[in-house]
Amino acid sequence: MNVLVDTSVWSLALRRAARDLNSSEKAVVAELAELINEGRAKIIGLVRQELLSGIKNPDQFKKLREALRAFRDEPVDTPDYEAAALAGNECRSRGVSVSLADFLICAIAASRGWSIYSTDADFKRYAKILPMALHSARR
Known about the structure:
Layout: E1 3-5, H1 7-14, H2 23-37, E2 41-42, H3 45-52, H4 58-68, H5 78-93, H6 100-112, E3 115-117, H7 122-127, E4 133-134
Parallel strand pairs: 1-2, 1-3, 3-4
């Protein structure tokens, strides 16, 4: 099964120095490396944009942009946005706060039969309401 990787995981791997990661964060990064090696790690353009946003140093921006170019953006179309809106509406109606980016990730993963890999605890709340699979480190 392919895995749609959230910004939180990519950020640990590509924006943080390995020496600054704790043991659980290192396990997350190691799992991402395994997913990449297996050809199962997927990204969407919105996650790419989030990763590249806020980088003040132009050289760091270029380095990160080049690293991310190894990964093709999964195409996103009208039904994905509509499904994201429906998922957000469902969660909001049950008192769960909504992030537009998160629900687009949920909708894309669900429509393609993929799991989501994230360190963001919000996805665990969404998974109690929405039909979605969460990926976790295998070690």
